[in-house]
Amino acid sequence: MPQFDHERLFLPGPVEVRREILEAQTQWMIGHRTSEFADLFARLQDKLKRAFFTDSRVYVSGSSGSGLWEGAVRCGVRDGARALHLTGGAFSERWAEISRANGKVVDCIQVDWGRAHTPGMVADALAKQRYDAVCAVHNETSTGVTNPIQAIGEVVAQHEDTLFFVDTVSGFLGTELRVDDWGIDIALTSSQKAFALPPGVAFAAVSDRLLERAASIPNRGYYFDFLTLEKSLLKNNTPSTPPIALMYAADMQMDAILAEGLEARWARHRAMRDATHEWALARGFGLYAQAGYRSDTVTTVANSRGIDVNAMSAFMAREAGFAMDKGYGAIKGETFRLPHMGDVTMDMLREVLGGIDAFLARQ
CA of 295: how far to CAs of 38, 98, 114, 117, 291, in Å? Predict the structure, then answer.
């Protein structure tokens, strides 16, 4: 039986993390109210702003991206006002649930899983009802759909009092996103997807418009209150204890990402997507996501061959040393996901696909 030094993660989060990034977390701890930490925060802030294509600010949160969902709606949707959620997958639907749980009035544009939202759908909704915010998922991790965020942003921008909130948890650093140019008021993400870091830290590029809205809302909470985060950010710090080890790792990883080049990184992800699509179709599988809106970071494969995805996952762990996805939520088993994100290379992708081929040959 093959021997591996660890089970390599071929999952749509958490993803495999390079050894040198893991080792960056072992640096000696520093106090988070020291000048050394302020220097780390400032370095990382500059790199994150470049990566988000924003001149504003990027908050660093010791949380998952789910916390920033809550922060966005608490700071951006006023009492009695409405939020419009674009739903069509497990995570877009969960964000709408979180908005409701925070007492917000929520309307949804629901599409079938695997389908994308269009600018026309949003334009029609905004013509009928005023909304404080439109909430969209850039890259729906459960279905492998990438929504046309730039075009939707152009529609939202025609409504001066409506903010545009974007979850780019599995899109950021794997597919194109330009926060300022696309009129995004918050773009939130997590560390464990295309960023290729361990889980536990989240980031949000936030506009001045959203901060102005937050100032008019009395009950924003504390931990995810953007005005509280802003006061600390101006001092290159955070209001509560930050995940210093993860910030060391993020600082090192951002150096590697910027050295690769953001457009080159996007192109690498597209090339792996295309190779994955070609492999899936050649083996008699389907592609679950709507044509024209298929993700650069994760391919949701339609299990049209009816293979036993549990058996496939067990085979890949035993024979190839990879932890594999089995599909998510309502489409688990009917699909399985092949994540080509983060620091995955074409060679690693070919190794995974070759392992699945070996499993298929035994069926």
Answer: 36, 25, 11, 14, 10
Mean pLDDT of 216-220: 96
Residue 74 burial (CB < 10 Å; 0-12/13-18/19+)? buried
pLDDT greater than 60 at residue 154: yes
Which DSSP category does 164 fall into? Answer: E
Kindly report the CA angle at 178 between 75 and 141, in degrees rounded to 5?
75
Strand-pair category, 133-137 with 82-87? parallel
pTM equals 0.97
For residues 184 and 164, the answer to whether their CB atoms sit within 8 Å is yes
Kindly tell me if the per-residue pLDDT of 84 is higher than 60: yes
For residues 178 and 204, what is the distance between their CA atoms, to the nearest angstrom?
13
Beta-carbon-side half-sphere exposure of residue 335 (alpha carbons within 13 Å) = 23
Q: Which amino acid is at 285?
A: F
Task: Give, to the nearest 10 degrees, the angle between helix 65-76 and helix 90-101.
Answer: 50
Cβ–Cβ < 8 Å for 270, 139: no
Q: Quick one: three-class SS letters along 205-232?
A: EECHHHHHHHCCCCCCCCCCCHHHHHHH
